[in-house]
Every structure is written in structure tokens, then in C-alpha cells.
Automatic annotation (TrEMBL), chain B:
Protein name, entry field: Eukaryotic translation initiation factor 3 subunit E
Example of a GO cellular component annotation carried by this entry: eukaryotic translation initiation factor 3 complex, eIF3e
CDD domains reported for this sequence: eIF3E
Subunit structure comment from the entry: Component of the eukaryotic translation initiation factor 3 (eIF-3) complex. The eIF-3 complex interacts with pix. Interacts with mxt.
PANTHER family listed in its UniProt record: EUKARYOTIC TRANSLATION INITIATION FACTOR 3 SUBUNIT E
Family affiliation: Belongs to the eIF-3 subunit E family.
Length: 881, 456
């Protein structure tokens, strides 16, 4: 795993690694590559590798010893014995079965040390529990283990050798390392070369030093090693002395430059700008040995060499990018074919991605623009060569660069996905109200173009799973955007065959529905599809999709970002329903969002300050990652206003109808709160905020004063605040007017029916400025539904009220009956709960039914009173048939 | 009137042979151009083996043209193939001719026993069944429906439902029964087929959906011709969620037939509930399908727009008159629709002028008065006619609070009683349980005693 995936790289370790980079000799790793060295590595292999392992562990143990960290020591010791076990065959072969001296020494040391610690009773007491436990087990294990080496140990103890010497040597090496600091500019060239060599050879330099002292035959080899280097260098000097000198000078200078720059970097100076032109050419020449014939294999090897350093702590990521660029230039120069070219480009892209160390941070803008240039280039190469195959499944060994069909390991899809994520991160970094945000947002065109390119490639490859993924990327860039042509097409201003975003969505989503087999992609695609339909006022399609998907039942089990998408979708569905005058649906879509009072959080449009407990840093980070970028936000005031208005249109007539009802229940809690808080105020000024407007309108409606209600809801202030945000604001306003008139009429009739004996419909239609058929229809509906005790008188065109006003006694009796009914209900429910449903099926069905209904009421989608329908195979399995 | 014609939509889900009656009907109504219709028929026929019929139509279409040679050749081929197939099923044919065999077959319920019996007695082989099905299919293709019916009947007696051909045979049987207009057996077959489909024999839900859609369409033939069909259609389309789903997703145009069935079935027990459910469905689907019949219901029960309903009723008459399935119930529909309007009207109004009512019901005033008088006489309406003013005065009065109170209390006692019964039963069950556990317990005590001597 590259470090990029590791979540919690805290800044501390980061800074330390940066420091290391400064200390290190830059560019050393790859500058001197020659074949000789490589062959040497191969020779070194088995024995030295094992020995290296052992010595490393020994070093670790010594370190632990110094700080008396028993538990770590124990584990290191176990590792050591294991490593030794592994090394045994080598030892048997190379040293004819004699245990290496250094190994015996460490055992002896350990033995002494453990005994010493064990004797030191006070010290043992002071140890923490973990350590003392480890000490015990360590002691036992060591004793057991040492038994096998008794002979060697005794011989060793008889003639213990240069422990101190060794120590000193090590220190020497250390100081050598520190000498290599670039700050020290006067170091002679040779030594610098040597120092530069050190990191390349890794630890084996140290190791060889060590082994020299131990006097085994590795001694000679290592000295040979040393000599080799010298000869090498000498060769170089001999070959091109003048040039070399020049180079040395230049290198020195450059190094100085770089040090300066590094210092600048540490100071936080703008070093990038200085760098640009100077550094790249100066580093050019050392990629390959001069006389090497550059062919595909060589380049590939070089590339893998560079890539091997990827993700390691000490690699300079910037340098990697440059090296790769260099490599690309070389390969292009030698015309090595598109495959290798593409492979290098992929590597560059990956390196640029790697440049930003932390996942949570956005990348630097200059690298971002670089990415935006690189990726399309790479994709162009890919698209220009249709028989090039890029896939994750291709193993490194099976890659083919030199002949068609090319086979390359890699994945463009992940590149794009990563790019997209970076884009969102970048956007979130910007201040949404600044010009910078707009500038950044312009990049979206490029991002979508890249996605399109990748899409054509992947479609060409024809792998359904990948096509689904890239489609979803595309969908997620599409779904929240309003396409004006859709509306124009609907009104017939555009030809019917224009391809609108709705059509595109339809095509993409249907593909995902059919081909996807991970549930997540499909869920997201459905949600985006619904969102898009809702945005474009395709109310029926959106509603059917919601009902068919059954998402409202399962959404709480999905991941947070999908839940957020669900919330956003529901919000837009609510708005869409509102525009279509489906007030009830609108209300039920929005009620879940608004009831909590945490709309902001639910829509991921900002963090709420929390009252009870502070968020931990970790949590805040996670939540910040989930936030939506600003341009995708849904206007909250609009949302709240739509919710409150629809609540008003439902609640006020209901309140009027059930004024004396014992079993009245609240439809919207939030709305009630608003009403109550305004009632509590002793002095009411003219409404200012949106909420105050709605409250004032509700009060007007309660009195049946539709005109006042209307002017409170729709006026200049509210237009500016809310209604103008709709794309077809005028339509919404006329719709609202009609609804307010109708609901006011209903409220009026409910409230004042007991005052009238009869009332002419003519008069009503004048009062509410409604057409007579509408009044007739509204009243008829109320009569049929037995909400209004009245009937129409046809000859006189009037409503005749049936006075059935209950007397006080009767109304109290009715209330009593209601309460007793409740009691019976609850009894039945209790019985059911205790009982399970064994016999209840037939009897008491009424109670059961009621209970279910009530449960269902709060669930969205179900109270829409609709037989669910399954258009396709979705969820069909769930059915009982 | 072509606007509301559904033949092209229905045709997608019907068998070729089933489309013929529809086309015949259309040509009788002369909504479409005759030659076009004939051409359509010819196209359909081209894939069947009913060549004589095809030749007839060709003559009608091009009276002067000679019958093309290839048709004649094809005819000869068909006949030859038919005889060949006939030979292959000779044995079965003989069996079927044999009265005795048929009787034993019908009495024997178990197909396995029957099969072994046949193999033993008459040298019957199970392999013949494939040929039998092929032959029946061929016969069907030739338009010889009654023959294929009897063969398929034979097949279904013998073969278990797990046979690979079973579903096809069921469909074939249904189609042939419909085409020979054997409605009783067709209804049986329909139910069999429905059970088969619902028993989930297919893995793929899409396939099930498709099968259901087909079944819905084919069943129209049965439902609108069988005497009891109207009950069944409501039961199947409206109250089986699977079929309602299928209608809503695949073929909302079926709502016309469902709506008509509900309207003409007003006297049924649950008519009111059915109506309510139907109106809900219609409202939901109003954006994908609407025609005068669904609009009529919408006007009447959603908007209470009586004028609109009246207009739609006029249109409905035409639609019904031009619909193959519905033409038979035209009068019934109009009568019931009127009643529905009137009833709703009465529920809302307390006083109605007869003139207005007559206008709304598409009647002249005298007729309307007569009609109302009849209604009152039959005690379906609590109303009185004020003939001087020309008014109908409703007698119904709203329930007094006292009555409301009584009603509510009434249900209370019933429910309490039910609850009490339940509890009693529960207690009884519990006490039984307790005694059982006692016995069990004692038994446990005894066990060691029993085992001890044995160990010794």
C-alpha cells in the first residue's frame, strides 16, 4: 500500500521525514547507475541478505538494550532466532557450520544483560508490568536457546573481542553519514562521492564495515567492494577528466543552489518559481550510462527502479516527478513506442498524486494544473492506440511494450477517480465566495473531458464493472446541474430529438441498473437519477423511481456519503413535489429532514456547532471530508420555506377541522414550534425573516383571510429571499395563490360553519376569488369525506349546514368514547405484544390495523398510499409470491 | 375514434391467432382503412400455416392477381408435414379414440400411476409426448384449434407439471380454448396457468413479469365472455398485487378494462372499496394512461365535476362501442355510470332540480323523472319528488351526535369481547401447558428409578 492510502499520517511524522530529506544527499540514488554495481548486487544475494537481516536485528536488540525496553527486545529476539534459522543453510554452506561470531556475541551479550537485569531486584520492581513480564519470558527463552550454543559461547567468552572497537566503528560510520550533509561544502569530491554512494548501497555499507572486524571471509569481499568503488570512480576520472571536473563544479554549485532552495523551502519561501527552468536541465545527463544502448528493457528497468522508491520515507517526491519526466524525454527521443510512453506517463501521474502526502489535504494548485495537462495527454496516447490494453489484472511479468498488442499494468479508472476526488478536495479548500473558487470550478470542464475520454476508452474495452464505475463518475458530475434545454424541449421550443442531460442520465443509469452487481453503485445511480428528474420537474418519473427502489427502507444501512446523497435527493424531490402542487408529498419528503433541525449536517453543507460534546479532531476531519462543495449546495432557506408553507397548507385546515378533537395530532412539529414561539411574544412587529412571514401568513389563514395570507407569503421580500430561486418562479406563485385560496376556503368553512345556517356559493366564490366550479368541487369533497356536515341546495346554489352541533354533555361523552377506544386499542396492542400473533389474526384485527397505520405514517413513501410497483427486477425477490 | 383504440397495444401481448378476432371486429367497425387491415392480417398470417385463409385474404386484397405459386407449394408442404406428424402420434390418436381408455384416464388422478398403466396396457411411450405437443402446435398453427385442444388435454392428464413443455402446453391450451370459445374450460385453464406462473417456476423476475402481462391480456377474452368473468377480473387485476404491479408497469391501458369491470359490477359486495382502490390507481397512473373511462371516474370521484363526468360519459359510450371486449357491456355500463353520478349527486345535495339532473344524466326530463321514481320505488333512494317545483328532495339527514355516540360504543363492546375471548383462550392454553409440564416432570422423576434396577 502506498502511503497515500494510509489515513492518519499526522503532521509530526511528516515534518520529520521532510527533515530527513534535507539531510540526505539528493539525487544520489539514481545518478550513478552502472551495470557493474547491479551485478554486484546479485552476487551479494543470499548470504549477505541473511547476514544483513541478522545484523539489523542485532542492532535493534542493542538499541532496546540501551533503553531497557524488554518487550520490544523479546520480539526482536524472537525475530532474530527465526532469521538465524533461515540463515542456517547458508551458514552451513559458507562457513562450514560454524556459528558466525557476531551471532555468538549477541547471544553472550544478551545473556549477560538479562542476568544483570534479573539480579537488579530494585530495578525489576520499578519496571512496568509489561516489561517485567517480557523479561521473565525472555530469560527463559534465552536460557533454552543458549543451550544449543554452549560450546561456542564458552569459546567466545574465553576470548571476547573488540566490542568497543565495533562500537567505535559504527559511530564512525554514523559520523560519516552526518558528514555527508550537503551543508558541508568543502568536502572533497571523492569523499562526497563515497558518501553519496552510501545511501544507494543501503545498509550493506555498514554491514561490510561490521563484518570486516569480525574477521570472517566477508571481510575480503567487502574490501573488494570498497575497492570496486574506487576503481569505478577512478575509471570515470580517467575517461573524461575535464568533463568530470566541470561536472563536479557544476554539481557543487547546483548542490549549493539546492541547499539554498531547501532552506528557502523550510522558511516557507516560494521556491518553486525559482526552480522551474534551472534544475531540470542540470540533472539531465545522468539517467543512463553514456554508452548504454537505450532500449525498451532498459527503460522499463529504470522505470521500475524509480518506482520502487515510491512511497518510501526518504524519497524526494518532487525529484521523482522530474526523473520520470526525464525518462519520458529519453524514451520519446529514442522512439520506444507508445506503450512505454504511456507507462511512463502513468507513472508520472501517479507520482504527481503522490506529491501530496496527506489524504485529507488538497493538492497544490500548480500540481493540479500539471495533472490536468498530463492526464489528457496520457489518455490521448491510449486512445490513439486502440490495441493497447491497460488493466490491473495484467501482471508485471506479462507486460508487453515492444509489440502489439501492448499489455500494460495499470488502471486509468482509478486515476480518474482519484482526480475527481482531488478536484472536490481542492474546491472545498477554496473560499466559496471568492473568485478563486470560480476559477477552480472552471476546471470542471477539463475534468469532465477527461472522464469522457476515459469513458470512451473503457467502453471500448467493454468491461461492465468498469463501465459502471466510470458512468457513475459521469453521473455524479451531471446530476445536480439544471439543463435548460430540458425545459425548452418540454415547451416545444427545441426539436424533440435534442439530446438533453435527462436523456443522457437515463442511458447511463439504465446501464448501471442492468450491469452493476455491487449494490452501492446502483443505489447511487438511482439516487442521482431521481435527483436529476426532480430537478427537471419530472415529478412522476422521480416519484416512481423512489417507490420502486424501496430505498427509504434500506438507506440507513448504507455509507454516510450515500445517505447524504439520499437526503439531498429527498430535499429536491420535496421541492419538485411542491412545484407540482403535491403539497402532501412535498411535506412527507421534507419532514424527516426538517424535523431534526440539523438540515445543514444532513445535507453536508456545513458543520453545526455542537452543544453537548465537542467533536474530537478526528471526527471533525471525517465530517469535513464528507462536506459537499459549495456549488452543489441546496439553498436551505428555500428548503425550509417550502417545508413550512406546505406544513401550513396542511396543518391550518386540519387544526380548524379538529379544533375540539381529543385525538388531534400534530402533523408538523417544526411548524408548531414556530407558531408557538410567535404566540409567546408579547409584542409582534411586522414580519422580517422568512419564518416570521410564514407564521404571520398562517395566522391570517386561520381566520380565513386568504388575501392577507397571500400577501405575507408572496411579496417582494419573500420573492427575493425564496421564490425567485425557483427556475419557474411565476408558475410557483400562481400555484401557491390557488392553493392558499382553496385551503383558506376550507379553513373558513371549518371555522365558521357553526355561525351559518346556509351560505351561498356565489358569495364564497367572490370571497375567495375562486371559480364557482372550484368552490363546488372543494365543498363537495368536504361533504363526501364527511368533514363538513352540510349539503348543497341545487335550486338556490347554496350550502345548507346541518346543525348537528353536539351539546356540551354530548361532546364530553364523545370524548370519553374516544378515550375508551384508545384504551381498548392499547389493550389489544399489549396483548399482541405479549402474545405474538398466534390467534389474533381474525379477532381484534381493527386494533392491529390501526397500529400499523400509525406506524407507517411517519415513513416516507408508504403513506403515499400507493401500491408499490416494480418496474424491473429490482426487489422482486422480496415479494412473498 | 382511432385515438382510443387499443388494438395495437393489446396486439403486442397476444398470440397471432388471438389477434384475428380483434381485427375482424375492427374491420366490421370500419374505423381503419379496409385494405390496410387486410394487409395487416396477411402479415400476421404469413407466419402461421393457415394458408387457405391467407389465400382468401389475398384474393380480397388483390381481386385480379393470381395466387402466387409459392403459397401453393407451401400449402402442399404443410399438408405433407401434417400427415407425417399425424403418423407419429397415431398411437395416441387411437388411444384417444378409445372410450374406455379415456374414461380410465379421467378417473385416475395420479399421472404417474396413469403413465405406468398406459405403458403396460397399450404400449405407450413417454417419448411420444414430444411429438404430441409438436403435432398439437402444428394443428393450432393451421387453425384447427379444437383438435389441438383435445391433444393438449391428453398431454396434461399424463405429464407432471415439471415437464419442460408444460408451460407451453398450458398457454396453447388456453389459446385454443379461447379460440373455440369454450369459456368454462378456458377459465379453468386460465386459473391453472396463473397458479403455475405464480408458483414461481422461473428464476428470472423479468420473465415472470412478462408472463403475467401476457396472462393479463389473454384473460381479457375469458373475463369479458364468461358469465362470472367480471368478478374474477376485479379480483385478479386489482387485488393481486403482482398483477396490479404488472398492469402499472407494463400495460396501464388495461386500466380501461378494469375500470369498466368495476363500474358494471357496482352491485357487488365490495364495489365501493374496489372503486376507491381503483380511483387511487387511476390517479397514480394518470400521467401514463388516460382515456374517457378513467377520466370519467376521475371527474366523478376526485374532482366532483359532474359536467365533466357527463361529457366523459358521452365519450365513453363511443369508446365502448368500438372496443372488442367491451361492446357487450355498453348498456350496462351506461346505466351504472348514470347511477353512480346520481348517487354521488344525492350524497352531496339535499335538493335537486329534475331538469338539471336530466341534463347531467343525458336524459330528457320526463325520462329522468320516471327513472328517479323507479329508483325511489325500488327503495334504493330515500327521496321525494316535488313535482310542482320540479325538485327532488333528499330525505337523508346526518346522524345526530347521539347516534354517532352509539355507533362508536357499539364497536367497543364487540372488540372488548373479542379481546376477552382471546385472553380466556390464552389462559386455557396456558393451564394446559402447565399440566403437560407436570406430567413431563414426573416422568423425569420416574426415569432414574426405572434405570437403576437395570444397571444392577
Amino acid at each position: 500500500m502506498s502511503r497515500f492510502f494510509a489515513t492518519g499520517t499526522d503532521s509530526e511524522s511528516e515534518s520529520s521525514s521532510e527533515e530527513e530529506q534535507v539531510q540526505r544527499q539528493p539525487a544520489a540514488a539514481f545518478t550513478f547507475s552502472d551495470d557493474e554495481e547491479e551485478t554486484k548486487r546479485v552476487v551479494r544475494s543470499t548470504k549477505e541478505k541473511r547476514y544483513e537481516e541478522l545484523t539489523n536485528l542485532i542492532k535493534q536488540i542493542r538499541n532496546h538494550k540501551k533503553i531497557k525496553d524488554m518487550s520490544s527486545m523479546l520480539s526482536s529476539f524472537e525475530d532474530l532466532t527465526r532469521a538465524y534459522q533461515k540463515a542456517l543453510p547458508v551458514i552451513a554452506k559458507e562457513e562450514s557450520g560454524v556459528t558466525p561470531r557476531f551471532y555468538v556475541r549477541i547471544l553472550a551479550e544478551l545473556d549477560d544483560f538479562i542476568n544483570e537485569v534479573w539480579e537488579d531486584k530494585d530495578g525489576r520492581k520499578n519496571m512496568n508490568k509489561n516489561n517485567s513480564k517480557s523479561l521473565g519470558s525472555m530469560r527463559q527463552k534465552l536460557r533454552k536457546y543458549i543451550k544449543d550454543f554452549e560450546k561456542e559461547l564458552t569459546t567466545f567468552r574465553e576470548a571476547p573481542d573488540g566490542d568497543d572497537e565495533d562500537e567505535a566503528e559504527e559511530e564512525d560510520v554514523d559520523s560519516d553519514d552526518s558528514d555527508a550533509k550537503p551543508v558541508k561544502k568543502t568536502v572533497p569530491k571523492l569523499e562526497q562521492e563515497k558518501a553519496a554512494k552510501k545511501p544507494t548501497a543501503g545498509d550493506d555499507g555498514d554491514e561490510s564495515d561490521d563484518s570486516m572486524d569480525w574477521g570472517s571471509d566477508s571481510d575480503t569481499s567487502s574490501s573488494e567492494d570498497e575497492e570496486d568503488i574506487y576503481t569505478n570512480i577512478r575509471d570515470r576520472f580517467l575517461k573524461k577528466p575535464e568533463k568530470e571536473e566541470e561536472e563536479t563544479k557544476r554539481e557543487k554549485k547546483e548542490r549549493r543552489d539546492r541547499v539554498k532552495k531547501r532552506e528557502e523551502e523550510d522558511d516557507g519561501g516560494v521556491w518553486e518559481t525559482v526552480r522551474g527552468g534551472v534544475a531540470i536541465p542540470s540533472e539531465k545527463p545522468k539517467m543512463f550510462a553514456k554508452d548504454a544502448e537505450i532500449d525498451v528493457n532498459l527503460v522499463v528497468r529504470k522505470l521500475s527502479e524509480i518506482m520502487a522508491a515510491r512511497g518510501k520515507k526518504r524519497t524526494d517526491r518532487r525529484e521523482q516527478i522530474e526523473l520520470l519526466h526525464e525518462l519520458q524525454n529519453i524514451s520519446e527521443l529514442h522512439n520506444l513506442g507508445p506503450a512505454i510512453n504511456f507507462k511512463i506517463r502513468l507513472a508520472i501521474i501517479a507520482a504527481i498524486f503522490d506529491y501530496t502526502p496527506k489524504v485529507s489535504d488538497a493538492m497544490k494548485p500548480e500540481y493540479w494544473t500539471k495533472l490536468l495537462d498530463r492526464i489528457p495527454d496520457a489518455m490521448d496516447v491510449l486512445l490513439a492506440n486502440p490495441d493497447m490494453q491497460v488493466a490491473e489484472e495484467i501482471l508485471e511479468e506479462h507486460e508487453q511494450f515492444d509489440q502489439e498488442p501492448y499489455q500494460i499494468r495499470g488502471c486509468v479508472l482509478t486515476v480518474v477517480e482519484r482526480l475527481d476526488e482531488e478536484f472536490v478536495k481542492l474546491l472545498k479548500e477554496c473560499d466559496p465566495h471568492s473568485n478563486e473558487y470560480v476559477q477552480r470550478l472552471k476546471d470542471e470542464i477539463k475534468v469532465t473531458q477527461i472522464i469522457d475520454k476515459v469513458q470512451t476508452y473503457i467502453e471500448h474495452q467493454n468491461k461492465p464493472a468498469e463501465i459502471c464505475r466510470i458512468y457513475l463518475r459521469k453521473i455524479e458530475h451531471l446530476y445536480y446541474k439544471l439543463d435548460g434545454t430540458v425545459l425548452e424541449k418540454r415547451e416545444g421550443r427545441m426539436p424533440a430529438d435534442t439530446v438533453t442531460s435527462v436523456d443522457v442520465m437515463e442511458r447511463l443509469c439504465k446501464y448501471v441498473y442492468a450491469k452493476d452487481n455491487t449494490d452501492r453503485l446502483r443505489t447511487r445511480a438511482i439516487l442521482c437519477h431521481i435527483y436529476h428528474h426532480a430537478l427537471h420537474d419530472n415529478w412522476f418519473e422521480a416519484r416512481d423511481l423512489v417507490l420502486m427502489s424501496h430505498l427509504q427502507e434500506t438507506i440507513q444501512h448504507s455509507d454516510p456519503s450515500t445517505q447524504i446523497l439520499y437526503n439531498r435527493t429527498m430535499a429536491h424531490l420535496g421541492l419538485c413535489a411542491f412545484r407540482h402542487a403535491n403539497i402532501k408529498d412535498s411535506h412527507s419528503c421534507l419532514v424527516d429532514l426538517m424535523m431534526t433541525g440539523k438540515v445543514k449536517e444532513l445535507l453536508a453543507q456545513g458543520l453545526l456547532p455542537q452543544r453537548q460534546h465537542e467533536r474530537s479532531k478526528e471526527q471533525e476531519k471525517i465530517e469535513k471530508q464528507r462536506q459537499m462543495p459549495f456549488h452543489m449546495h441546496i439553498n436551505q432557506e428555500l428548503l425550509e420555506c417550502v417545508y413550512l408553507v406546505s406544513a401550513m397548507l396542511i396543518e391550518i385546515p386540519y387544526m380548524a377541522a379538529h379544533e375540539f378533537d381529543a385525538r388531534r395530532r400534530m402533523i408538523s412539529k417544526t411548524f408548531y414550534q414556530q407558531l408557538r414561539s410567535s404566540e409567546r411574544q408579547s409584542l409582534l412587529g411586522p414580519p422580517e425573516s422568512m419564518r416570521e412571514h410564514v407564521v404571520a401568513a398562517s395566522k391570517a389563514m386561520r381566520n380565513g383571510n386568504w388575501n392577507a395570507c397571500f400577501t405575507f407569503i408572496i411579496n417582494d421580500k419573500m420573492n427575493a429571499k425564496v421564490w425567485d430561486l425557483f427556475s419557474q418562479a411565476d408558475k410557483v406563485r400562481t400555484m401557491l395563490k390557488r392553493l392558499i385560496q382553496e385551503e383558506s376556503l376550507r379553513t373558513y368553512l371549518f371555522t365558521y360553519s357553526n355561525v351559518y345556517d346556509s351560505i351561498s356559493m356565489e358569495k364564497l366564490s367572490q370571497m375567495f376569488e375562486l371559480d364557482k366550479p372550484v368552490v363546488h368541487s372543494v365543498i363537495s369533497k368536504m361533504i363526501i369525506n364527511e368533514e363538513l356536515m352540510a349539503s348543497l341546495d341545487d335550486p338556490t346554489q347554496s350550502v345548507v349546514m346541518h346543525r348537528s352541533e353536539p351539546s356540551r354533555l354530548q361532546s364530553i361523552a364523545l370524548q370519553l368514547v374516544d378515550k375508551v377506544n384508545n384504551l381498548v386499542d392499547s389493550n389489544e396492542r399489549i396483548f399482541e405484544m405479549k402474545q405474538g400473533n398466534f390467534f389474533v389474526r381474525g379477532g381484534g384485527g381493527g386494533g392491529q390495523g390501526n397500529f400499523r397505520e400509525r406506524q407507517n405514517y411517519n415513513r416516507q413513501g408508504q403513506d403515499w398510499g400507493r401500491q408499490r410497483r416494480d418496474r424491473e427486477n429490482r426487489d422482486r425477490e422480496n415479494r412473498a409470491y | 375514434m382511432a385515438k382510443f383504440d387499443l388494438t395495437h397495444k393489446l396486439g403486442q401481448y397476444l398470440d397471432r391467432h388471438l389477434v384475428f378476432p380483434l381485427l375482424e371486429f375492427l374491420s366490421a367497425k370500419q374505423i381503419y382503412d379496409e385494405t390496410e387491415l387486410l394487409q395487416g392480417k396477411l402479415d400476421i398470417l404469413s407466419k402461421t400455416n393457415m394458408l387457405d385463409y391467407a389465400i382468401d385474404i389475398r384474393k380480397q386484397l388483390h381481386p385480379n392477381a393470381e395466387v402466387p405459386e409459392d403459397l401453393k407449394i407451401k400449402r402442399a408442404q404443410v399438408v405433407a408435414e401434417l400427415t407425417e406428424l399425424q403418423n407419429e402420434v397415431e398411437l395416441v390418436y387411437k388411444l384417444m379414440q378409445n372410450e374406455e381408455v379415456m374414461q380410465t384416464m379421467e378417473t385416475m388422478r395420479d399421472p404417474k400411476v396413469l403413465l405406468s398403466h398406459l405403458t403396460k396396457e397399450y404400449d405407450f411411450k413417454i417419448d411420444m409426448m414430444d411429438n404430441l405437443v409438436k403435432f398439437a402446435k402444428y394443428r393450432y398453427e393451421c387453425g384447427n384449434y379444437s383438435v389441438s385442444t383435445s391433444y393438449l388435454y391428453f398431454y396434461m392428464l399424463i405429464m407432471p407439471p415439471t415437464d419442460k413443455n408444460y408451460l407451453n402446453v398450458l398457454w396453447g391450451k388456453l389459446a385454443s380454448e379461447i379460440l373455440v370459445q369454450n369459456w368454462d374450460t378456458a377459465l379453468d385453464d386460465l386459473n391453472k396457468l396463473r397458479e403455475f406462473i405464480d408458483s414461481n417456476a422461473f428464476a428470472n423476475p423479468l420473465q415472470v413479469l412478462q408472463q403475467r402481462t401476457w396472462l393479463i391480456h389473454w384473460s381479457l377474452f375469458v373475463f369479458f365472455n364468461h358469465a362470472k368473468g367480471r368478478d374474477h377480473i376485479i379480483e385478479m387485476f386489482l387485488y393481486r398485487p403482482n398483477y396490479l404491479n404488472a398492469i402499472q408497469t407494463m400495460c396501464p391501458h388495461i386500466l380501461r378494462y378494469l375500470a369498466t369491470a368495476v363500474v358494471i359490477n357496482r352491485s357487488r359486495r365490495n364495489a365501493l372499496n374496489a372503486l376507491k382502490d381503483l380511483v387511487k390507481v387511476i390517479q397514480q397512473e394518470s400521467y401514463t394512461y388516460r382515456d374517457p373511462i378513467t377520466e370519467f371516474l376521475e371527474h366523478l370521484y376526485v374532482n366532483f365535476d359532474f359536467d365533466g363526468a357527463r361529457q366523459k360519459l358521452n365519450e365513453c359510450q363511443e369508446v365502448l362501442y368500438n372496443d372488442f371486449f367491451l361492446i357487450a357491456c355498453l348498456d350496462e355500463f351506461v346505466e351504472n355510470a348514470r347511477l353512480m353520478i346520481f348517487e354521488t349527486f344525492c350524497r352531496i345535495h339535499q335538493c335537486i332540480t329534475i331538469g338539471m339532473l336530466a341534463e347531467k344524466l343525458n336524459m330528457n326530463p320526463e325520462e329522468a323523472e320516471c327513472w328517479i321514481v323507479n329508483l325511489i320505488r325500488n327503495a334504493r333512494l330515500d327521496a321525494k319528488i316535488d313535482s310542482k317545483m320540479g325538485h327532488v328532495v333528499m330525505g337523508a339527514q346526518p346522524a345526530s351526535p347521539y347516534q354517532v355516540l352509539l355507533e362508536r360504543v357499539d364497536t367497543l363492546s364487540v372488540r372488548s369481547e373479542a379481546l376477552q375471548n382471546l385472553i380466556e383462550r390464552k389462559v386455557k392454553a396456558k393451564s394446559q401447558d402447565v399440566s403437560f409440564s407436570h406430567v413431563h416432570f414426573d416422568f423425569n422423576l420416574i426415569m432414574p428409578v426405572l434405570t437403576e434396577p437395570m444397571e444392577q
